[in-house]
Amino acid sequence: MAKKKTFRPKPRRPRGFRDRSGEEILAEQAMLRRICDVYASYGFMPLETPAFEFTDALGKFLPDVDRPNEGVFSLQDDDEQWMSLRYDLTAPLARHVAENYDALPKPFRRYQVGTVWRNEKPGPGRFREFTQCDADSVGAPAPHADAEAIMMFADAIRAAGLEDRDVKIRVSSRKVMSGLLEAVGLDPEDKGVSGTVLRAMDKYDRLGAEGVRLLLGQGRKDESGDFTQGAGLSDGQADHVLAFMEAASDDDAAAIAQMRGVMGGSAVGAEGADELDAIAETLAAMGYASRVRIDPSVVRGLDYYTGPVFEAEVTFPVQNEKGETVVFGSVGSGGRYDDLVKRFKGVEVPAVGCSIGVSRLLTALAARGEAQAARGPVVVLALEADRMPAYHRMAAALRAEGIRAEVYLGGSGMRAQLKYADKRAAPVVVIQGEDERTQGEVTVKDLELGAKLSETVESNEEWRSGQPAQVTVPEGELIAAVKRALGAD
């Protein structure tokens, strides 16, 4: 009788999802602290919402409605109600505000950090699961709340680690987009053709003018063979749209004036241009004009935006896994969405917010070689099995001084323990074998300094003669010796 084969699942990850190392998580936590400190400095308070929302609460404001599953991961609960993993942090905020409307101060100013999920095609630095860090003002009308949101967004991007030369922050308005749609003979409220036009325009930074022209026309097939249906515009209409998107200038007033000219007599377009004028005036007065530009090529893909929109895009080259230079795109964005809470309340509630894609920003910095290696804990070697309480006391004493420390618990010998410390990126190891113990001493070995010296020392004799990376001190001086090693350059 044949032996039944045991099924063993293949260890693999779904496309667009990834495992993350301790170093990356620590870098993300540090970045999030810096960003949230900026949000808090503007008076915003933290909020948490569930990962799942009822699908009807999320609405149709999804990131990529061209895909058959509409861009979200969904399931039915035991009541047969459809729930979806949140695709951003703004739609859950709208639900929270509507549910607690009377109890909240208006404007309601909150920031939130959380994981979001998007069931869309992965790309360079674009994952199906990633971290966002948002701040929003609900109950604050345009344009002054928008100007504040843009200034705070620029400060947060800088705090995250991007220097001003590394990023361009661009501002436009969905109202001027509506003015453009009217100028080419389309209904801005038509979510079909007009929505397709806006989504095509939003891909300008990634696909360029010719790629967008295809999406404005009959459609485009990407490198994988997937075909995206186009908006079906005429060549003349497509020319008008592309001319509008290229109306950028180093002079904000000139850019807004050119946008007014392309929109013609559209009333909603003129209202949007007036708001952009007010925003540009505030940004200039507050010293942000060199960091932020009015640019009509900014669209933003989500349909819930109703007024000013903005985004931050890295300017340095980024390479993908194949070593090819690619357009990385946006690492953060924001805008006005006055109709989102209205879906629940039936009345317009003005709101504006910003979001930073921390996962994407970390990927961009890592691609440029700026990922910082995380420093591991101090490792106390365990060389004598019957001395484990003493080793634990050493580690506890270091932790009491705010120093990360652990005792090696793997059961191996000294050589393996030192290899373990190297893999843990430990800056220092503490050694107390029989010789040190009988003398009431400990040895502190500076692994970071030792690694630097090994690059310059030319002989074993030279290395043994000094041993500057290793000191033996009385047991009572352990903490001081470790602190000196950790503080060394």
UniProtKB/TrEMBL annotation:
<dbReference type="InterPro" id="IPR004154">
    <property type="entry name" value="Anticodon-bd"/>
</dbReference>
<keyword id="KW-0067">ATP-binding</keyword>
<feature type="region of interest" description="Disordered">
    <location>
        <begin position="1"/>
        <end position="20"/>
    </location>
</feature>
<feature type="binding site">
    <location>
        <position position="118"/>
    </location>
    <ligand>
        <name>L-histidine</name>
    </ligand>
</feature>
<keyword id="KW-0648">Protein biosynthesis</keyword>
<dbReference type="InterPro" id="IPR041715">
    <property type="entry name" value="HisRS-like_core"/>
</dbReference>
<feature type="binding site">
    <location>
        <position position="300"/>
    </location>
    <ligand>
        <name>L-histidine</name>
    </ligand>
</feature>
<keyword id="KW-0030">Aminoacyl-tRNA synthetase</keyword>
<dbReference type="InterPro" id="IPR036621">
    <property type="entry name" value="Anticodon-bd_dom_sf"/>
</dbReference>
<dbReference type="GO" id="GO:0005737">
    <property type="term" value="C:cytoplasm"/>
</dbReference>
<dbReference type="GO" id="GO:0004821">
    <property type="term" value="F:histidine-tRNA ligase activity"/>
</dbReference>
<dbReference type="InterPro" id="IPR045864">
    <property type="entry name" value="aa-tRNA-synth_II/BPL/LPL"/>
</dbReference>
<dbReference type="GO" id="GO:0005524">
    <property type="term" value="F:ATP binding"/>
</dbReference>
<feature type="domain" description="Aminoacyl-transfer RNA synthetases class-II family profile">
    <location>
        <begin position="29"/>
        <end position="389"/>
    </location>
</feature>
<dbReference type="Pfam" id="PF13393">
    <property type="entry name" value="tRNA-synt_His"/>
</dbReference>
<dbReference type="InterPro" id="IPR015807">
    <property type="entry name" value="His-tRNA-ligase"/>
</dbReference>
<dbReference type="InterPro" id="IPR006195">
    <property type="entry name" value="aa-tRNA-synth_II"/>
</dbReference>
<protein>
    <recommendedName>
        <fullName>Histidine--tRNA ligase</fullName>
        <ecNumber>6.1.1.21</ecNumber>
    </recommendedName>
</protein>
<feature type="binding site">
    <location>
        <position position="136"/>
    </location>
    <ligand>
        <name>L-histidine</name>
    </ligand>
</feature>
<comment type="subunit">
    <text>Homodimer.</text>
</comment>
<dbReference type="InterPro" id="IPR004516">
    <property type="entry name" value="HisRS/HisZ"/>
</dbReference>
<feature type="compositionally biased region" description="Basic residues">
    <location>
        <begin position="1"/>
        <end position="15"/>
    </location>
</feature>
<dbReference type="Pfam" id="PF03129">
    <property type="entry name" value="HGTP_anticodon"/>
</dbReference>
<feature type="binding site">
    <location>
        <position position="132"/>
    </location>
    <ligand>
        <name>L-histidine</name>
    </ligand>
</feature>
<comment type="similarity">
    <text>Belongs to the class-II aminoacyl-tRNA synthetase family.</text>
</comment>
<dbReference type="GO" id="GO:0006427">
    <property type="term" value="P:histidyl-tRNA aminoacylation"/>
</dbReference>
<feature type="binding site">
    <location>
        <begin position="88"/>
        <end position="90"/>
    </location>
    <ligand>
        <name>L-histidine</name>
    </ligand>
</feature>
<keyword id="KW-0963">Cytoplasm</keyword>
<dbReference type="InterPro" id="IPR033656">
    <property type="entry name" value="HisRS_anticodon"/>
</dbReference>
<keyword id="KW-0547">Nucleotide-binding</keyword>
<keyword id="KW-0436">Ligase</keyword>
<feature type="binding site">
    <location>
        <begin position="304"/>
        <end position="305"/>
    </location>
    <ligand>
        <name>L-histidine</name>
    </ligand>
</feature>
